[in-house]
Design brief:
With 209 residues, the chain is mainly alpha-helical. It contains 9 helices and no strands.
Length: 209
């Protein structure tokens, strides 16, 4: 699997792009090739990556401070790109965010190499922490900002706990995508989850007397 084939984001250098960007893509592709060849993350040295990518070690160090930063960018490039939010409503933005999460779940299921790399990353605290700090946490903050904006616009109750609400929206998708690999991930799932959670957070109609 090449980064160009891994998802909607094409990593192949287009005509007219700066040469430096083509070099970065070659380095990212070199890491993926080594992973595809079965080289464990722990055995990937900068020297070996440079040799595979056809560049010097200094070229890599000019772009990344070390392997942790490089691996984070490899995973970021291999995953579907983060979506652009429509901004039309809190509900619409939440649906787009969950659709992106669904797409990553589908990719992780279909790509043995990505599944293997995620497992290896979890066994390396430095890489896993770097991935969370630079990829996962910003995504969580984006979801919480959508909810905060919803509170300001009156789309979400002022008393709703943002942290908890964010978990309520993303939790079901993560459960389906990761903990239940046999469960379906239909296209309608993001809307189903968002509408069900919003209905639960809405005002309760008192029973008729």
């Amino acid at each position: 699997m090449t980064l160009a084939d891994s998802g909607p984001r094409s990593m192949a250098p287009a005509r007219g792009r700066p040469r430096s960007e083509a070099v970065e893509i070659a380095i990212l592709e070199g890491v993926m090739k080594l992973l595809e060849d079965g080289v464990p993350l722990g055995e990937l040295s900068i020297e070996r990556i440079a040799r595979t990518a056809g560049v010097g070690k200094a070229t890599i160090y000019r772009r990344w401070n070390g392997k942790e930063e490089l691996f984070v960018d490899v995973m970021r490039a291999a995953e579907p790109p983060d979506p652009e939010l429509p901004g039309t409503s809190m509900r619409d933005d939440l649906v787009v965010l969950l659709e992106s999460l669904r797409q990553r779940g589908l990719m992780n299921r279909s790509s043995a190499i990505l599944h293997n790399v995620y497992a290896q990353m979890k066994s390396s605290p430095r890489i896993w922490n770097a991935y969370h700090a630079n990829v996962v946490n910003p995504r969580r903050e984006l979801g919480k900002e959508v909810l905060r904006r919803g509170q300001r616009n009156g789309e979400l109750g002022a008393g709703v706990d943002i942290e908890l609400a964010n978990d309520m929206f993303t939790g079901p998708m993560l459960l389906r995508a990761i903990l239940r690999p046999d469960a379906e991930l239909p296209e309608s799932l993001p809307e189903q989850i968002v509408d069900a959670v919003l209905a639960g957070l809405g005002p309760v109609t008192p029973p008729e007397s």
